[in-house]
């Protein structure tokens, strides 16, 4: 890449990618846990998509029963470490804590969850949970991301033989590859997967359903199949110059960063990120940590419509990232590498069917931005290609259609959950879907038996 930023030293990279939030010490965890009011009608539980019994796990920390606390958490959420580190807690549990109404700092639920779960994971995860005796039935799970892992763990506990099929050589999907490393490392994700494997879940990697094995083979081999494949395909913006060297996609960029081989990641001096969701901010803050000198987020709507949450926005501003609202690129140019970007100013109009104000270009408002790296972070869309041959699995508006309670598709043997049914939400929503779907599968297979 041209104009590549001078590489940083190893110690600079280490410092830049240090974890954003420090863990609690034993003492500070107990002090924070003791602050909790253990509310009877706990709003924090309702605000957690997996409905973790928050006051109970916090109470157990305050009495020194840390393993018991972690077990309470895992009882509701099988990817509790990932969620403790990556959940937007301000919008979920901590945002609902009664201390906010009192004008005080909410209980640090995420950090306390992390404290308990890390304690358990560090002590070793064999024979921690009572799994039921094998019932002789097997379930195949496509994808080892949050939904697949949660579904597999819950089914293993219920006595099923669980086989997860993962196309990547390293399991974990979004948990392992999609979240900025200063929030959660790859090692953390894999540590939690070890716990799930210790429940008896088998994960076969480098196997792509639809290529290495057909869906029909899967459905004949197992009593039921769960699809937890996320979205997969990047939502593209096709403009002139989008194939120039120095133009990347957000998911691929974050994956490279997650390998933690910082000096090998391509980075420009002037980086523009197109889009303003949480992933776009992840790209921007990673770019700064890799040594980019000027990082700008370009967004077609205004700050009011920006999808990134407040925590991410503050993080970006603290990192010196610039925001260019109401602007959209129309062309990238350069000889072989990208050297500049022509943008147009946008204005907002009526509300569209998704409830967002439409943005339209203002005529003759073009302006140029000097860049040597552009990253598109416009979200992902569901690639439903391999589902087309599966009888009765319907895709509507880019999402697999399921019964919202059982997570069963119109094909009774097939269930689905996570981003592929909701179009892309938080990791914690996928964890909930996976667990609920496991019970949907269990009900279906138990009723068949009756
Ligand atoms: Fe504790 Fe806050 Fe939940 Fe009440 S709302 S139980 S104070 S964490």
Biggest sheet, open or closed, and with what strands and sense?
5 strands, parallel
**Structure ligands:** iron/sulfur cluster
Helical content band: 25-40%
For the terminal residues, how far apart are their CA atoms? 64 Å
Which sequence of strands runs across the widest sheet? 3-2-1-4-18
Based on secondary structure, the structural category is alpha/beta
**Mean pLDDT rating:** 93
CATH topology of the largest domain: FAD/NAD(P)-binding domain
Total number of distinct structural domains? 3
CATH superfamily of the largest domain: FAD/NAD(P)-binding domain
- Helix count, DSSP H or I runs of 4 or more residues: 18
Query: Nearest-angstrom radius of gyration?
Result: 23 Å
Overall morphology: globular
User: Which architecture of the largest domain per CATH?
Assistant: 3-Layer(bba) Sandwich
Low-pLDDT segments, ≥5 res:
none
- Measured by DSSP, the beta-strand proportion falls in 15-25%
**How many beta strands in the DSSP annotation?**
18
- The CATH C-level name of the largest domain is Alpha Beta
Mind explaining what this structure looks like?
There is one protein chain. With 450 residues, this protein is an alpha/beta fold. It folds into 3 domains: 20-123, Alpha-helical ferredoxin (Fumarate Reductase Iron-sulfur Protein, Chain B, domain 2); 138-232 and 381-449, FAD/NAD(P)-binding domain, CATH 3.50.50.60; 236-378, FAD/NAD(P)-binding domain, CATH 3.50.50.60. The chain is 36% helix and 17% strand. The protein has 18 helices and 18 strands. It has helices at 10-16, 26-35, 43-47, 54-62, 66-76, 80-86, 93-96, 98-101, 109-123, 146-157, 174-177, 186-197, 215-221, 250-258, 278-289, 310-318, 419-422, 427-449; strands at 138-142, 161-165, 202-204, 224-227, 232-234, 247-249, 270-274, 294-298, 322-324, 327-333, 340-351, 357-361, 367-370, 373-376, 380-382, 395-396, 399-400, 414-416. The strands form 5 sheets. A 5-stranded parallel sheet has the order 3-2-1-4-18, with helices on both faces. Strands 6-14-7-8-9 form a 5-stranded parallel sheet. The longest helix has 23 residues, at 427-449. It starts with 9 loop residues before the first helix and ends with a helix. Bound molecules: iron/sulfur cluster (SF4). Iron/sulfur cluster (SF4) binds next to helix 3, helix 4 and helix 8.
């Amino acid at each position: 890449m041209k104009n590549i930023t001078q590489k940083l030293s190893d110690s600079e990279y280490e410092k830049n990618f240090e974890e954003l939030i420090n863990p609690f010490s034993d003492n500070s965890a107990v002090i924070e846990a003791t602050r909790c009011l253990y509310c009877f009608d706990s709003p924090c539980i309702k605000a957690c998509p997996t409905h973790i019994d928050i006051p109970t796990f916090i109470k157990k920390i305050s009495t020194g029963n840390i393993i018991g606390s972690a077990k309470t958490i895992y009882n509701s959420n099988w990817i509790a470490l990932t969620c403790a580190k990556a959940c937007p807690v301000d919008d979920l549990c901590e945002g609902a804590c009664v201390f906010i109404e009192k004008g005080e700092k909410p209980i640090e639920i995420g950090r306390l969850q992390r404290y308990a779960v890390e304690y358990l994971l560090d002590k070793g995860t064999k024979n921690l949970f009572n799994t039921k005796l094998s019932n002789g039935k097997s379930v195949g799970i496509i994808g080892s991301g949050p939904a697949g892992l949660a579904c597999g763990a819950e089914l293993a506990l219920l006595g099923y033989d669980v086989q997860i099929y993962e196309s990547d050589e390293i399991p974990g999907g979004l948990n392992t590859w999609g979240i900025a490393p200063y929030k959660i490392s790859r090692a953390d994700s894999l540590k939690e997967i070890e716990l799930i494997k210790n429940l008896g879940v088998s994960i076969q990697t480098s196997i792509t359903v639809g290529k290495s094995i057909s869906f029909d083979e899967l459905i004949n081999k197992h009593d039921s199949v769960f699809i937890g494949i996320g979205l997969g395909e990047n939502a593209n913006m096709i403009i002139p110059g989008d194939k120039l060297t120095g133009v990347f996609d957000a998911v691929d960029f974050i994956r490279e960063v997650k390998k933690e081989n910082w000096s090998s990641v391509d980075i420009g001096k002037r980086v523009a990120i197109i889009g303003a969701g949480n992933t776009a901010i992840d790209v921007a803050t990673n770019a700064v940590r890799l040594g980019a000198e000027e990082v700008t987020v370009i967004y077609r709507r205004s700050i009011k419509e920006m999808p990134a949450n407040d925590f991410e926005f503050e993080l970006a501003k603290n990192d010196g990232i610039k925001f260019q609202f109401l602007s959209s690129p129309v062309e990238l140019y350069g000889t072989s590498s990208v050297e500049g970007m022509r943008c147009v100013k946008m204005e907002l109009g009526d509300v569209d069917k998704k409830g967002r104000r439409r943005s339209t270009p203002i005529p003759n408002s073009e302006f140029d931005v000097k860049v040597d790296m552009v990253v598109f972070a416009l979200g992902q869309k569901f690639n439903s290609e391999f589902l087309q041959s599966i009888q009765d699995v319907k895709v509507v508006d880019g999402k697999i259609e399921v019964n919202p309670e059982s997570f069963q598709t119109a094909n009774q043997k097939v269930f689905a959950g996570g981003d592929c049914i909701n179009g892309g939400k938080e990791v914690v929503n996928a964890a909930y879907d996976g667990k609920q779907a496991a019970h949907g599968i269990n009900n279906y297979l138990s009723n068949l038996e009756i």
